[in-house]
Amino acid sequence: xxxxxxxxxxxxxxxxxxxxxxxxxxxxxxxxxxxxxxxxxxxxxxxxxxxxxxxxxxxxxxxxxxxxxxxxxxxxxxxxxxxxxxxxxxxxxxxxxxxxxxxxxxxxxxxxxxxxxxxxxxxxxxxxxxxxxxxxxxxxxxxxxxxxxxxxxxxxxxxxxxxxxxxxxxxxxxxxxxxxxxxxxxxxxxxxxxxxxxxxxxxxxxxxxxxxxxxxxxxxxxxxxxxxxxxxxxxxxxxxxxxxxxxxxxxxxxxxxxxxxxxxxxxxxxxxxxxxxxxxx
Amino acid sequence: xxxxxxxxxxxxxxxxxxxxxxxxxxxxxxxxxxxxxxxxxxxxxxxxxxxxxxxxxxxxxxxxxxxxxxxxxxxxxxxxxxxxxxxxxxxxxxxxxxxxxxxxxxxxxxxxxxxxxxxxxxxxxxxxxxxxxxxxxxxxxxxxxxxxxxxxxxxxxxxxxxxxxxxxxxxxxxxxxxxxxxxxxxxxxxxxxxxxxxxxxxxxxxxxxxxxxxxxxxxxxxxxxxxxxxxxxxxxxxxxxxxxxxxxxxxxxxxxxxxxxxxxxxxxxxxxxxxxxxxxxxxxxxxxxxxxxxxxxxxxxxxxxxxxxxxxxxxxxxxxxxxxxxxxxxxxxxxxxxxxxxxxxxxxxxxxxxxxxxxxxxxxxxxxxxxxxxxxxxxxxxxxxxxxxxxxxxxxxxxxxxxxxxxxxxxxxxxxxxxxxxxxxxxxxxxxxxxxxxxxxxxxxxxxxxxxxxxxxxxxxxxxxxxxxxxxxxxxxxxxxxxxxxxxxxxxxxxxxxxxxxxxxxxxxxxxxxxxxxxxxxxxxxxxxxxxxxxxxxxxxxxxxxxxx
Lengths: 281, 549
What we know:
The complex is a heterodimer of chains A (281) and B (549).
Chain A: H1 4-12, H2 16-36, H3 70-106, H4 108-123, H5 126-137, H6 141-152, H7 154-168, H8 171-178, H9 183-219, H10 231-240, H11 247-274, H12 276-279
Helix pairs in contact in A: 1-11, 2-3, 2-11, 3-4, 3-6, 3-7, 3-9, 3-10, 3-11, 5-6, 6-9, 7-9, 9-10, 9-11, 10-11
Chain B: E1 4-14, E2 23-31, E3 35-39, H1 46-53, E4 62-69, E5 72-74, H2 79-85, E6 90-93, H3 97-100, H4 107-118, H5 124-137, H6 143-146, H7 156-168, E7 174-178, H8 186-201, E8 205-210, H9 213-217, E9 222-227, E10 230-236, H10 237-242, H11 247-254, E11 300-309, E12 312-322, E13 327-331, H12 338-345, E14 353-358, E15 361-362, H13 368-375, E16 378-381, H14 395-405, H15 411-424, H16 441-453, E17 459-463, H17 471-488, E18 491-495, H18 499-505, E19 508-513, E20 516-522, H19 523-528, H20 533-541
Parallel strand pairs in B: 3-8, 3-9, 6-7, 7-8, 13-18, 13-19, 16-17, 17-18
Antiparallel strand pairs in B: 1-2, 1-4, 4-5, 9-10, 11-12, 11-14, 14-15, 19-20
């Protein structure tokens, strides 16, 4: 069977180890890059506004309309996007695992109700509601993180539920029930720990998803406040001057695409390694 | 013996990353019309042999040596040759027939596909004839109905017949039967064994891989005994089983419980999985003075218990008492309600009617803390030792779990108690920190028993607790159960379809059929003079050891 990994790998021409190395490089660049550059992300260089990428003026990827270095801004924005993506993905991981484990383990009517709630949640035009909320209540980091986590947790919850339902019938779980262990104890000590490998693999898929959602919100101007904007915010700025200075748009876009692609390919490969059911020829 | 159909020559198999080879230079041959039984304990390489013959070993496995069919070499590396070989020359049937059949297609469709693959020129009607002939050959009665069904709607025995029909659909010359009787209850296992014999008599060469010596002994012409990938002994089945030459086979045969003898302890075959002196349990143990004398009040009293699964009555008006120090065997064919009974006793299944009293207190009306308290008076041991332990927890943590739940002692105290229990069940302190995957099946089951005993419950419920274990390991566990009864006055409900094991371990026995108790009494009496047809058919289907002439 040609798995999703193979298909994506062929599409991107990107073998998994290369994807992993690329991802590492991108994260490293975002983490330490801003310290190595002579320009701050908010520092205007009036003499060189809207210059094209080049070496002579020191702005490797050019500058925007008010002379800010595009490379510095892209890397600084990478910090915001990656960090917000990671934290939101961790939140989604916790919610998804706990919800799925509870639904799957408890079973019966509770499970059906929880799945119905999940279906309703997933069917809502969630991002629209988030946009509405962020507009109504103003932008705040906790609300932003909750919004991103809320957009990406449902798939994991479904997978976790199926796995937990299987564990519900496992003799070692019955043995715990038989000595009077409470459902909460069993979920915490037997079910969730068994789901952790699954969670670790899913985290790899949640992070790029969360980054994408963050960028989407950022593009709408609803992500983290100025001046520390993420890639989405840069894209929005880039679109403004797309015709005069395309590099302002291209640099963050390329960075975003490279990160999403590398992270997805790498985590797909990781999933195939961890889950033997998917690795069979 | 006529000319061999299939010959295996110095076969060596080593799995990727494995230290020792799974098969280490094995040679054997099987002729048409013959049942060759390959027997051995888990890890002996017998299933590896079955898979190797069909070229079904995982990629990356080192395979050397030859497999020849009628003198023609079969090279396992050639994929095209393998495709022509599998199914048409050699067919294979597996232990778990349900897992080996396609769940979403009817049995008839699956057979039809294979028949069409073998003979692409046949038209629909001719194929149908062939499929019906196959069904008749494997004894699928009422093929019109059964062939139109999906595998999950067949009974265990029917599924196994369908699995064998599938293996025969390509009209192979050799049938490899990998533990095809192991998952079945005695009547069904006996019927499938008879089917293998009949197929051989009709001219097929049959290689039957099995661990049940008595069962396979009833149909095998020749026997090959494997141990750790090497042949220990081979010869005519009857001779080998009545006069084993190797100490290994002799020990294996001696450690089986038997219907016709009742030793106080079973000799434990070979190096037992328990590291402490293998002969230790044989020493008579002094009864503890605190055990009350008979007659005693029952510790478990079940009256008129009925359980329904949906509209189906799983158990109907079950009534029995269990006293301290007593082992009550519960036997019956698959689907008779044995496991439902175990679950109902812990209220894991809801009882529909009746009463269960644990030490005089009503279990069915208890709730909250009282229910938890009553459940802790009953220990539970399951069939599959690997599945009954949390794979992430070291042995002592599993054993201590009931103590944690019941809030007994602190961490140090619980660990002490776990170590004590480990010794009690015949394991060493070094096993305390091992996870289940680093323990053998027998050791896992001992840990599961230690966990069940952690809160010193007066009652232990064993649901097929030895059925998945090898003979030698099984003997150790049965001895352990007897010890616990005699030393601690433990009351045991021993649920099993293995009458010989029940004969050894139990004092009294209940025979269950279709959810009702059809017969009960002292084990020696019921198993030697069964009065109900259900008990008689169970007994008749239990193979007798072959005696020296």
